[in-house]
Structures are given as structure tokens and as C-alpha cells.
Amino acid sequence: MSSATELNRRPPDRRPGNRLAAFYRATVGKKVVMAISGVVLFVFVITHLAGNLQVFLGSEKLNAYSALLRGMPELLWPARAGLVVALVVHVIASMQLVLINRRARPVTYAVRRDIETNYAARTMAISGPLVLLYVIYHLAMFTFLVTGPGYSHTDVYRNVVLAFQMPAISGIYITAMLLLGLHLCHGLWSMLHTLGISSRRYRWLRRGLAPAVAIAITAGYISIPLAVLAGIVE
Amino acid sequence: MELDPKVPSGPIEQKWSKYRFDMKLVNPANKRKYKVIVVGTGLAGGAAAATLAQLGYQVSCFCFHDSPRRAHSIAAQGGINAAKNYQGDGDSVYRLFHDTVKGGDFRSREANVYRLAELSMAIIDQCVALGVPFAREYSGYLANRSFGGAQVSRTFYARGQTGQQLLLGCYSALARQIALRQVTMHPRHEMLDLVVVDGRARGITTRNLLTGVISSHAADAIVLGTGGYGNVYYLSTNAKASNVTAIWRAYRRGALMANPCFTQIHPTCIPASGEHQSKLTLMSESLRNDGRIWVPKQAGDHRPVGEIFESDRDYFLERKYPSFGNLVPRDVASRNAKEVCDEGRGVGPGGRGVYLDFTAAIARLGQDLVRQRYGNLFEMYERITGENPYRQPMRVYPAIHYAMGGLWVDYNLMSNIEGLFVIGEANFADQGANRLGASALMQGLADGYFILPYTIGDYLARVSPADRLSPEHHAFRQTELEAADRLKKLLSAAGRRSAGSFHRELGELVWNQCGMSRSAPGLKQALARIPELREEFWQSVKVPGSGAQFNQALEHAGRIADFLEFSELMCHDALDRDESCGAHFRLEHQTTDGEALRDDEHYCHVSAWEFTGLGQPPLLHKEPLAFEYVKPTQRSYK
Amino acid sequence: MKLILKIWRQASAGEAGTLITYPVEDVSSDMSFLEVLDVLNEQLIAQGERPVAFDHDCREGICGSCGFMIDGVAHGPLRMTTVCQLFMRHFGDGATLVVEPFRARALTVVQDLVVDRGALDRIIESGGFISARTGSAPEANSILVSKEASDRAMDAAACIGCAACVAACPNASAMLFTAAKISHLGLLPQGQPERRQRVLRMVDAMYDLDFGSCSNHGECEAVCPKGISIDFIARLNRDHITAGLTSAREVIKDV
Ligand SMILES: Cc1cc2nc3c(=O)[nH]c(=O)nc-3n(C[C@H](O)[C@H](O)[C@H](O)COP(=O)(O)OP(=O)(O)OC[C@H]3O[C@@H](n4cnc5c(N)ncnc54)[C@H](O)[C@@H]3O)c2cc1C
Ligand code: HEM
Ligand code: HEM
Ligand code: SF4
Ligand code: F3S
Ligand code: FES
User: Fold this and answer.
1) Alpha-carbon gap, residue B25 to B617, rounded angstroms
2) C61 close to ligand 6 (CB < 6 Angstrom)
3) A108 touches C at CB < 8 Å
4) Which chains touch A (3 or more CB pairs under 8 A)?
5) Which residue from B122, B136, B180 is facing C147, i.e. has the nearest CB?
6) Would you say the ipTM is above 0.90?
7) pTM surpassing 0.90?
8) C69 membership: H or E segment, kind and range
9) What is the pLDDT of residues B344-402, one digit of tens each?
10) Could you tell me the distance, in angstroms and rounded to a whole number, from the CA of residue B72 to the centre of ligand 1?
């Protein structure tokens, strides 16, 4: 009998009255939140990269930049708050979605072949959390200075160089950057789609651009530990 | 029995408006007290259920499909006619009426056909409002094409998916009523019988296909929109599950079956490729606009196409019908194709096919233009056959396509059983002995959206919902028991043959004896063989599984059991109608050119058959047909 | 040719199922995949066994009844093709093929390869319509629709409701199906008045019916027999953002 009742199963009307809560309730709303927080995180990743690449300009430049940021708490703190909110929201929504998606297919296929999707897309829920772990580690190292070899709050340049001279730390960073690149490979394209930015004509562009940007970002970040290891930056 | 078609009096143009004025109305406050059962969610049933629900009746709707959206109507490709005269090419209600009566070879009821033509325009309006994406011109206006040899462009279409889009339109209207709980939808429920008490239809008995539970449903009126019975021939263009059960069971309960021998053949289907063939696929008639049909002149000429010289080819339609050539009507084209194949000149596996050749068209128009016009059809052909029609001619063969016959109904679409309404392909009404292209969709939607909702009101206003029986009534229990018994009998037959193999055998028999052309000896032979086959079926069919579960083999077997009974009536009717008309071609009655020769003196009537017991000859009732507006003429396509 | 089919057999929703191997001989390359199952079923019936259940009806690729997984791909290896239109000439002789039902929480297995797709109907019932009372329609040509919009609407409307998109989606999401309907109606002028409510309700229904979310994998488009584009998903997202920002959802009621 169960299947007979299933057939006429109708979902109860349980959408909350509050418009925002209602928007967030279903998966499509959650995805929008993922995408918007993704944009915020992406913008940070880009600016942070721009800042970090100044390491190639020498210690004065980078330290000056760092000092500049610290000199503007009225900008820095709201930005940090925004970042934290984005990260928290991104993480919570992603966990909810992962659970919903797991639940949506209780029995898996004996054989399954993917056609269109790729490794990056399939591993979003792995690359994401790993990036989160990395960020915690990274904050501990460079922001809270609780790990790592004797850092100073004023000489960011030295902190970075000292850290990356240790192959283990560089290794962790490089791996993390690759994971971030992987996350963005799918994330950037996905984000545009989720926000409804789509035009048939430019699909190839979005499809192509997302990995290109992701690779560029990864390469940019990785260049720093590599340069330190190679002794170009010291 | 007196057959009263209840056609309103007055000039034909005023009958329907007069009717609507004269009919009784149900008090709006009372509508919700009435319960109507609609069986079928094709264009006819779906449109009716949605509209009746909008009017405020409680509707229970049934279909054997898993979703109302999958009814066979979905497969219609070509289009739907309407006398909009958007092209300004001289179309009018009267012309559509005239063409349909003439196309039906003067075997339909004029008043019904006129009403159909009159309502055709509102159908298009309604469908557009529901969001049917009909083809448009660049200006944004609706586009039309000419279809099936009509001289005006009155066909509306949505790519090659007109039926699908129309059905999705009415399915969405139905879905809305389901959400509003005006309609209780019962998908995967098969109607197994009609419950008739004191000459009135009181309800139906159904089997829940998922659970096997047999139960009854009572209502104040029952509507059958269960489609056509073309699958009696086994191979047809109909969807695999289309069947005769609902109307056959109603017939056995006393409803009259009208003109069951009127079945239509479509000339351009993809031929069967072997024993395994499970159904045939239709390819649009439009192919005949540019393709040339031929077979080798010599029987047994098995050379590959490329090696058959031009002089060895017989373009038989062009030869025999110089003015119409390849564009002769469906039945003429079909019969001629069969004839040349019977002469041993057919091509392809089993010699059942003729070439439909685009070589000349490609030379004349260029491959690009041909691709533009027919690209999707060519693709479909290639997908199925693995042959590329740009390089080698297609092979086509006629196949059963549509059933003009069906349950007899009066002008109100009510059968002779009080409270039993029949709409769409399931009734016999508007297509006469032959249906014109693009007019079945029109009929289904006219019945469902615009006719039945009025006429059923007139009926309901005369009955009281307080009289509705309870499904606990013994008549329901009795019908349930009988239905269950039948299933039990099927399940317990101790044979080894699948129901499908009987279907195949029956199909071949009726196709040969009661198909494109019929003759008294052939029909008698079939009439002798069918009861034997039926006997064998009940003896040696094998239906695995139980009745208390989802059991497709059982569903299938039940339908075939009914085909085995129905086919006998069909042959009987074909034998009785000792004339040729429309798609009913009796070899004994043809002009010297091989045209159908009508006998208006003796057969200008509807043959409505009454069930008298299985194996007993059915009882004939005649509804005489009068043609006051369109004078009968003899067709000629020379 | 010869085939070895490993078919999922499950007597009913409540019972456990398993893959069973069936060799099928005498397969002709002109057979459709369903005709191969017909042949197998004839054999099974002759042996008194329960035939393999599978949904089908039109066998022309239009009704959306048929559909199952062949070697892990919904509707099998050929693009833009339903299993009823998938001919055996596309398979090698002696191939072993795994045939499984579509799987998702929202699509319960009824028997063998038959699943209950009622959830798709529920989605349409939640808002996939234009409320146009029979008889209330204006003259058809008083509503002009640009050819472009109409063609695009038709692209979306071509969906046959087969649920292959759900089956193929790693998240068992019904986004492509839903987006197709929302786009079909949303692209037409007739569909505008209810556009926002429609998207809000249908998006909710998908969630309430236990479909997963869309992570833009694109598998759905790849297996869709009608080639429905995931651009329609982006369109749904766009409509949903606008609607969510501007409208509160109302319950469906009659006029
Ligand atoms: C390939 C093809 C192409 C066609 N093209 C055109 C065209 O271009 N133009 C045109 O005008 N016509 C065309 N036709 C004809 C037209 O499609 C049909 O005549 C028409 O759609 C029939 O509609 P209907 O509503 O009467 O029945 P159907 O659409 O056949 O619906 C029958 C319904 O009844 C239900 N049902 C049946 N029996 C039972 C039962 N016992 N219990 C419960 N439910 C039951 C089914 O589930 C289904 O919902 C075509 C037909 C074919 C085969
Ligand atoms: C700097 C860090 C990050 C950036 C720039 C980023 C960016 C993005 C972007 C742009 C998307 C696409 C959103 C969409 O499809 O609409 C995305 C998706 C996702 N992110 Fe992140 N992300 C980051 C960190 C994280 C973290 C820490 C987690 C997990 C804990 C995570 C988990 C996910 C998941 C699971 C998805 C896929 C969601 C889905 O499509 O269902 N991400 N991310
Ligand atoms: C080679 C790569 C990187 C280097 C050299 C680097 C370096 C730094 C340094 C030196 C700081 C401390 C700045 C300060 O306190 O003044 C910092 C902060 C931070 N980094 Fe990175 N970083 C790298 C990659 C990343 C990546 C990939 C992410 C995110 C995914 C990230 C996220 C952060 C965050 C969130 C902070 C804290 C910002 C703040 O305090 O407001 N970093 N990084
Ligand atoms: S979108 Fe494509 S795959 Fe999904 S139900 Fe519609 S036709 Fe099937
Ligand atoms: S495969 Fe699934 S994730 Fe989205 S793009 Fe298609 S619904
Ligand atoms: S059987 Fe209709 S789509 Fe395959």
C-alpha cells in the first residue's frame, strides 16, 4: 500500500511567513546564499592575492601594505566581519545542502557513469572543508601567530619567508592552494549560474573562464612558497 | 431500441446556440454536490475533467498511465485544425464543416460536425491562453500550414509536437484543479467495468495497478475519454497501452458500439523490420509533398536501389492518379501500396514496403532546403532504421492509425445508457468513415472543453445527487466480483503462451481480413477464427505473478482478452456493411478506378450494435443519416 | 547478436532488490532496447517467471513513460534519445549491460525498472500552469508572441517528464524539469501574471518532495532526451531571486 499513498503524496504547505526565511528554506534559496557568500570569499581571495604578491616587491612594500591595512581599523574590521559572516554562512549552507543531497538519493547506483560533470564539481564538499581547515591553520600561523617559527606582528615579510623556507609548511600551502583552485574551478562557473547570470551565447566563455581564473589564482598563490623555496624571495 | 440522436431543430448554424439556451442549468450552489467520474486524461478526458472541475463539480479522474500527461494524445505530431481563416485564404466554419463531412465520406452526423467546426476557433484561443507554444510568424502572429491535402491553411502546430503541447496545456489546467482539490486524480488505475443499475450508469470498477486492489467509485455521471482501439491490429501507430477495455466493458453493459469497422490507415509509416517489431512509427504525411513513391516494375526484383534503372521503376501513384499523384488521400495511397506489395513488388524485409524517394526533390530543391523541410523526419527515420534518407530512399508502409468507430453517442455525447458520456476518439461521432488530418485533436478538445461541460450540465440538472448510489451497493460489489473473477481466470490459466503472442496472431488476422481492404470471404474466415483463438487464449495463456501486486503481464492480458472479443464485432460490422465508404474498403464494391463505391441507398446510416452475449450475433440498430447541407458526391482523385 | 543483461529485479517497493543476469540471444540490431526486453519477457513468461517490469507506452520518445539506467547512464549511451528509441545497432555483440531503475528518494521503485514519478506531477500541481478558465480566453491573435520567445518557450516545453534528469543528477535534483516548465510559461506573455508565484511555489515543492539541490553539474542536460538546456536552470534562479525579493508566496486558491 505504501506506494499507492506515495503516489498521491502532497507536501504540506510549511513555508514560513518571514520572507527571508522563506527564501532560504528551499534548496534554491540556500544556493543563492552559497553563491553570494562565494562572491565575497572570491573577492577576498583576489585582493589577498594582490596584497601577497607584493612579496616580490621586497619587504618594505609588503610590510607597508600590511601596516596600511592595520592602520585603518574602521575599514579592516567591517571587512573582517563581512568575511567571517560570508565564511560561516557559506559553510553552514554547504553543510545543509550536502545533507539534503545525500538524503535525496538514499540508494545509490551499482554502476554510474558521469558525462558532463567533472572532478572539481564532484569534490566541492571535500575541497571546501579542506580549505576551511587550511584557513584555520593559516590564521593561527599568520594572524594569531600561535604556530610557526617566531613571528612578529610588524614584519609580515619575514614571517612569510621564514615559514615558507620550511618545505613542510610550503607543502601544506601548495596543497591547500591546489584545493582552493579546484574549488574555484567549479565554484566560479557554478556561482554565475546560481545567480542566474547566463546567456546562451557566452556559455563557453563562462565554462572556460572559470577554470582559467581559478588556475591563475592558484598559480599566483603558489608562486610565493615556490619563490621562497627557490630562494628568489628571501 | 429507438435511437434518438437528439439533434436540436433549426438551421444548422443555430442548433448549438439554441441548444445552449434550451438546456437546463445546474444551480451554481448545487454543483459541488454532483460527482462526475472522468476516465481518461487525453485531450478529451483531460480537458473535460479540468473544465468540469472549474465549473464546480466534484471530479474523480482516472487513467492507467502513471501520470495524466502521458495519454496517447501526446504522440500526435501534425497539428490541429481551426477555421480561423488567419491566412485569408477562404476558410470558414462552413468550409471546415463541409470538408469534414466530405472527408468522412458521408457517414457522420452533420449537426455534430458543424458544431465541431464552429467550436474549432475557441479551442485555439483556449490553448494559447493556457500557454501552448504554437508556431508563430516573425510578426508574432500565429502560423498555419496546410495539412493532409486541405486546400486552405488552417492547421495550427507546435513543431512536430502538437499533440504533446496541447495535452500539456490541458494537463496543466487539470493539475491546477488537482491542487485545488476539485479533482481527485487516480493515476495507475484501470477501469475494468461500468456499473449500470436500471439503465443508468452509476459508477465504475477499477483496479489500482500498483496494489492490485479492485474497488468501485460511484458518481452522478460517467465520462469515458479512453481513446481508440487501433491496437486491436497489434501493430499500429497507437501507443502500446491504448486499448478497448473501457468502451468494450461499457458495450457489454448495454452501450451501443457504432461503426466499429471504421479504422483508418496511415500510408507513411516506417515498415516493420522483423518479428520483434512492437509498434509502428508514423512519419508525417507532409513527406508526400516532395517525395515520390515507387516500387520496381518487376516482382521479385531484389536489386539494390541504385541498380534499378529509372525505366524499371513504377511510380504507381503518379501513374494511376495523374492529377493528384503522390498526394492522393490516405486510404487511396495506402491501398495502392498494399496492392503493389501483394503483387510481390514490395521492398525491404518481408517485401512489405514501398520507396519514398527524395532524390528528385534533392536535385530540384537542394539538400539544404530538403533538410529544412524534413530534417527532423529524416533524422527520426535514420534513428529507427539506421539508413540515411538523403542517400537512399526511405521505405514506408501503411499502418493502422485511428479508430473512427466507437461508442454510439447522441448530440449530447451521451450514449444510450443514461449518464454515460463518451468523448474523444472513444466515441464514434464526428469523423464518419474517414478522418481528415489534424481533426482528431480538434474533436477531442471540442468535446472536452466546450461540448461536454454544457451537455452534462443539462443531464445533471435532471438528476438528483441524493440518488447517487453508495459504492457499497450490491451492484458494485457484484461488478467487483466479476472483474476479480476474470483476473483470477487469467492468472490460473495453465498455459505457456504469453498474452502478447495471441495479440500478434489476432493482429495479423484482422490486418489481413479487416484491414485496408476487406471482402466477405475474408471476413467470414476471420469470424470463424476469432472465437477459436479466444478459446485457445483462455486455455493456454500464461500470466505469471499474482493479482495482488503490480503486474504488467496481467494488465496486458486483460486488454488482449477484450481485443479478442471486440475484434469479432469489428469484423461483423465490416461484413454487414456491404459497401465501401471512406476507410472501409470492400473489394466487392469499387469503381472501375478502384475507388470506394458507396451505397447510399442501403448504408447511409450509423450501425450501432447491441451486445447480446458473447459468441451471439450482436443486434443492429440503425441511425439513419441525412445530408441536408453537404450533398453526397462520389470522390475522384483522377 | 547476443547480450548479457544484468537487470535490477525488485518485486515491490517494500522488498529488497538485486541485479540478476540474463543472457539474451537472437538480438537483432534493428531492435529497440525495449524490444530486447520484450524478447526477454517472452522467454521469462514461457518459463513461468515474472517478466521484467518497465514503463513504456508511445515508443516514439514523446510520452516520457520509459526510462532506466543502462551502464550508469540515464536512457543509455546515445545522446538525445529515450530507451524506446535506442536501437541495438549502437551496442557491440556480446556486450554486458547493467540495467537499473532511476533512483532518488522522490522516485520510489514500484517494481524492477518501474519507478513512481508522481513527485513530478506534484511539482506541476504546485504552480506549473496558467490559470485560464475554459471559455475565458481572448482571441488567440490578440496575444502576440515574438517568434524568438515562442521558439524558446517551445524548446523548454519539449520536456517529456521522463525524470532522467533527476536520475542522472548526482544530487537527485529536479531542477531541469522544473526549470523547463517555469521557462516555458515564463517566456510567454500569457505566463507573466503568475510568474513570481509560480517560481516560488515550484521551488518550494521541489524541496518538500525531497529532491536535492542543483550544484550545476550539468549531468541532467547531458542525458535529457529532449536536450533541455541548463540555461533554463539559470533562468529559474534569476526568476526566483526576483520573486523572492519582491513577492511573498500565496497559497493557491480559486478565483
Ligand atoms: C502517431 C499519431 C499521430 C497523430 N497525429 C494527429 C494529428 O496530427 N492531428 C490530429 O488531429 N490527430 C492526430 N492523431 C490522432 C489523435 O492523436 C487521437 O485521436 C487523440 O489524441 C485521441 O485523444 P483521446 O483524448 O480521445 O484519447 P487518448 O489520448 O488516447 O487518451 C486515452 C486516455 O484514457 C485512459 N484510459 C484508457 N483506457 C482506460 C481504462 N480502461 N482505465 C483507465 N484509463 C483508461 C488512458 O490512460 C488515457 O489517459 C494521431 C494519432 C497517432 C497515433
Ligand atoms: C575561500 C574560500 C572559498 C571560496 C572562494 C568559495 C567559493 C565558492 C563558490 C564560488 C561556490 C559556488 C557557489 C554556487 O554554486 O553558487 C562554492 C560552492 C561550494 N563551497 Fe565554497 N568557497 C570557499 C570555501 C568553502 C568552504 C570553507 C567550504 C566548506 C566547508 C565550502 C564548501 C562549498 C561547497 C560544498 C560548495 C558547493 C555547493 C553546491 O553547489 O551545492 N567552500 N564555493
Ligand atoms: C601563499 C599564500 C598566502 C600567503 C603568503 C598569505 C599570507 C597571509 C598573511 C601574511 C596574513 C596576515 C596578514 C596580517 O596579519 O597582516 C594573512 C591573513 C589571512 N589570509 Fe592569507 N596568505 C595566503 C593565502 C591565503 C589563502 C588562499 C586564503 C583563503 C582561502 C587566505 C586567507 C587569509 C585570511 C582569512 C587572513 C586573515 C585576514 C585578516 O586578518 O583580516 N590566505 N595571509
Ligand atoms: S528535462 Fe529532460 S530529462 Fe528531465 S524530465 Fe524533462 S525531458 Fe526528461
Ligand atoms: S545534474 Fe543536477 S546539479 Fe543541477 S545542473 Fe543538473 S540538476
Ligand atoms: S515509451 Fe514513450 S518516451 Fe519511450
Assistant:
1) 41
2) yes
3) yes
4) B, C
5) B136
6) yes
7) yes
8) strand C69-70
9) 999 998 899 999 999 999 999 999 999 988 888 899 999 999 999 999 999 999 999 99
10) 4
